[in-house]
Design brief:
single chain; 321 residues; alpha+beta; Gyrase A, domain 2; Elongation Factor Tu (Ef-tu), domain 3; 2 domains; 6-stranded antiparallel beta barrel; 16 strands; disordered C terminus
């Protein structure tokens, strides 16, 4: 049986990879970039072979429905959709085609692995480089200093037969490193989640592109409103050897102000977690995480500040174009 902290160090150093539960779909046709651009929150065209994008599929109300990772191949766009089935994603894309020249094919006999970008497996067929490490063109960053955090992660599509040759650790091993970087994932999303609550506008939303589902809400919250919640990193008291889990309530003076979305034990930082809390929760307040019968004190690191949104006429950081 593996040691989670040893696995985590191996993953962080590039000595190991994780297998990602994800769909892989190959999208072809001369109109594929136009269709994808109309469906997704990120600007997809132009995109050159080898370039990567992160995008969100939003509902008409601007809620997050899917997260997709795209990498351009010579004659196709490869779509990686975490926590989804390949056939489901291919069918969804096909259902969005009317008269356009686009076809979505679910790829079989492949797998997705992830790890430090420098640890690329030689068997990789396609490489998606995570853009979270820097503010992307057309995006907007609410968090201050977030680009100073090191996050150099990639995903690789490999033949399924190559998995036996790779040093793999459990996918959950990535959670602690992701929490440290303040990097949101689909696991942190519920059915009311808005991109602004996670600072996802920095990597997955283009504010100056054409129309897409949910765009009106994205623009309204960003320009004149505020997201109702904000993502925080919590440092938890682990002295009693009781640890938080996703779904645990976060309280302030006995009132619930949020929920844990992902929790882990970091090999250097100890017990840490991501949580969505009410926007108005004081940033300096010590919070309490309720796990069963235990109350765990937790201090906050701000990821999304309380003043996120309402940027019209009050720029905090420049938007890249």
């Amino acid at each position: 049986m593996s040691n989670p902290l040893v696995d985590q160090r191996a993953l962080a150093s590039g000595a190991a990879l994780c297998r990602v539960p994800a769909a892989v779909v190959r999208v072809t046709g001369t109109d594929r970039l136009t269709v994808l651009d109309n469906l997704l929150s990120q600007k997809i065209r132009p995109i050159a072979p080898g370039e990567s994008r992160e995008a969100l599929v939003l509902t008409g109300e601007g809620r997050i429905d899917r997260v997709v990772h795209l990498v351009e191949a010579d004659d196709a766009t490869i779509v990686i959709a975490p926590d989804a089935e390949s056939g489901e994603v291919a069918d969804w894309l096909e259902s969005r085609v009317f008269l356009e020249d686009m076809h979505a094919e679910a790829l079989a006999e492949v797998a997705v692995v992830t790890g430090v970008a420098a640890s690329a497996p030689v068997s990789a067929l396609h490489t998606w480089v995570d853009p979270w490490g820097a503010l992307q063109p057309g995006g907007y960053q609410y968090a201050e200093g977030a680009t100073d955090r090191t996050w150099a992660v990639a995903e690789w599509v490999v033949p399924a037969t190559a998995l036996a040759e790779l040093a793999l650790v459990p996918y959950e091993t990535l959670d602690a490193l992701r929490i440290e970087a303040g990097r949101p994932a689909l696991a942190d999303v519920d059915n009311t989640a808005l991109p602004h609550e996670f600072d996802w506008l920095r990597s997955a939303v283009h504010l100056n592109k054409g129309c897409y589902p949910g765009q009106e809400t994205v623009a309204k919250v960003h320009n004149v409103g505020h997201p109702p919640r904000r993502l925080v990193r919590l440092h938890l008291d682990g002295s009693e050897s009781v640890f938080a889990e996703a779904g645990d309530a976060v309280e302030l003076e006995g009132a619930v102000v949020g929920r844990i979305t992902t929790a882990a034990i970091h090999h250097e930082l100890g017990p840490i977690a991501l949580a969505l809390v009410k926007r108005t929760t004081p940033v300096s307040a010590t919070l309490t995480v309720i796990h069963g019968d235990s109350a765990l004190p937790a201090t906050q690191d701000v990821i999304v500040p309380p003043d996120a949104g309402a940027t019209a006429g009050v720029p905090r950081l420049p938007t890249l174009r």
